[in-house]
Amino acid sequence: MQHNWSRYLRIIVIGLAAATLVGLYFGQPLYGLTAGLIVYLWWTLVQAKRLYQWLGNPAAADDAPQSIGLWGDIFDNLHKLHQSHLRTQDRLRAQINRVQESTNAMRDGVIMTDAKGAMEWWNGSAEYLLGFRRNTDHGQYIHNLIRTPAFKTYFDSRDYREPLEILSPAKPHIHLQVQISLFGDDDRLIVAKDITRLYQLEQMRRDFVGNVSHEMRTPLTVISGYLETLVDNAEDLPPKWRRAINTMSAQSSRMEALITDLILLSKIETGEQTVNDSPTDVNLLIEQICHDAKALSGEKEHEFSINVKDRRLLKGDESQLRSAFSNLIFNAVKYTPARGHITVTWSADREGAHLSVKDTGIGVDPIHIPRLTERFYRADPSRHKDTGGTGLGLAIVKHVLLNHDGNLEIRSHIGEGSEFICHFPRERLVERVPEKTE
Ligand code: ADP
Fold first, then answer.
1. Which of 45, 136, 218, 358 has the greatest CB tally within 10 Å of its CB?
2. Where are the alpha helices (DSSP H) in 106-193?
């Protein structure tokens, strides 16, 4: 390039020198030089005009203008640059088309929005699943098209670790699982998956467990009734039968407890027992449950402390809350050795209301904590076999809290006791109406 540049300079200088010599031949070297400069300037202007016209609309002509010398090289280089630009453009367009084709072939709905939720692009499945329209919905805010409040809260939360389940706004029989990812400049990639089949299977499972438990309850009540009568009249029985009858009676009571818990869990899960959001006096509830828990503790003589740090009421279903809190407090009794300490605290702060049940019992290894609320999960079956639990207590607690927009926190270490904390949102707290004095 450097080499060409000095060649061009040389040609220009030689040209101007030749023009000066021709001028000198006529006795006017300055006129010759001036005429040379004018010719060169004119030629440069003509080339600049051609370049200007071509740059204004390079697509109109296939090739860049042709020329010689410096301008020829400029045109050639620009032509090469333009060609490589076109090739890159074609390659990128092909790649974008391919990505769009593949996302269009996906069965999941894919939507791209900006940070505020304005829709930029979506695939065919999103049109089918969510009812978006290609011609009219571009640039619309997604919250205006998916009007479920839970979706808006999820979109704004920026915490997308867990997916959200909603009903399709266009086809209410379709259950969707929505997962958002952040990309680019705070933009959102939303993937909506049709989980209707999975939902129906889950519903069938719940119904099946609920129905079977119901059907088993009546025969079991009859068997338990007879066994109880036999136990009450044990002295009339031959001694070899007494132990068997006692064991059968204990096991049938256990089965009854299991069936009661299964029915309760299936009711809470299926929403058959709808959450009745009336104000519940948690203080009173704790006192009543602790009273029963002392009876359960019996000879183990646990020491109970009740701390009530907030007098407000909790909006919720009293019977569901009673099941949840009693499961936690009875568990504390079951898993705490004799004369251990059990502390129940009801408090509230900026984040919400909290019910904590803390014991000085056997505790659990933290590796089991994430799975404790699964049905029939036991941290260490060998250590817990005599507690007579159904294995469903914490699953019930978890579902009751889900129904109340809350969650369960578990802190525990082997040999150091455990703490189970139920967190409720602040909006569920209501002031106690002062009692009227006559
Ligand atoms: P279970 O009927 O077996 O008590 P739960 O669902 O109530 O069933 O509890 C599940 C498991 O969690 C228990 O088997 C036990 O291992 C553990 N667990 C629950 N509460 C406590 C506690 N207070 N201390 C230690 N372990 C506990």
1. 358
2. 124-130, 142-145, 149-157
Do 23 and 143 lie in one domain? The reply is no
Determine whether the shortest distance from the Cβ of 36 to ligand 1 is under 6 A.
Answer: no
348 and 421 co-located in one domain:
yes
With a CB cutoff of 8 Å and minimum separation 6, the contacts of 97 are: none
Does 349 share its domain with 419? yes
Return d(Cα 257, Cα 244) in angstroms, integer: 20
User: Mean of the pLDDT values across residues 337-366?
Assistant: 95
Is 437 a domain residue?
no
Residues 286, 376 share a domain: yes
In a domain, 435, yes or no: no
Q: Which atom of ligand 1 is nearest to the CA of 375?
A: 6
Q: Which of 270, 296, 331 lies at the terminal end of a domain, its last residue?
A: 270
Indicate if 160 and 288 belong to the same structural domain: no
Question: What's the pTM?
Answer: 0.69
Pairwise CA distance, residues 67 & 65, whole Å: 7
Q: Whose CA is nearest to atom 7 of ligand 1?
A: 393
Domain boundary among 194, 215, 231: 194
Whether residues 145 and 266 share a domain: the answer is no
Q: Is 67 among the domain residues?
A: yes
User: What is d(CA 24, CA 204) in angstroms, rounded to the nearest whole number?
Assistant: 108
Residue written as tokens 């959200």?
Answer: 164
379 within ligand 1 shell (Cβ under 6 A): yes
Residues 221 and 305 reside in one and the same domain? no
- Separation of 434 CA from ligand 1 center, angstroms? 39
305 secondary structure, DSSP code: E
Q: Is the pLDDT of residue 148 over 60?
A: yes
Name the residue range of residue 168's domain.
106-194
Among 333, 342, 364, which residue has the most ligand 1 atoms within 8 Å of its CB, making it the best to mutate? Answer: 364
Q: Give the count of domains, the chain.
A: 4
Q: How far apart are CA 121 and CA 113, in angstroms?
A: 7
Q: Distances from the Cα of 207 to the Cαs of 202, 268, 269, 390, 391, in angstroms?
A: 9, 12, 10, 20, 20
> For the segment 21-71, what is each residue's pLDDT rounded down to a tens digit?
999 999 989 999 999 999 999 999 998 998 888 888 877 776 777 888 888
Contact 216, 259 (CB under 8 A): yes
Specify if 438 maps to a domain: no
**Three-state SS annotation for 348-359:** EECCEEEEEEEE
pLDDT in tens, 240-293: 888 899 899 989 998 999 999 999 998 888 766 667 789 999 999 999 999 999
Helix and strand counts by DSSP (H, E) for the chain: 12, 13
Instruction: Name the residue at shortest CA distance from atom 14 of ligand 1.
Output: 378
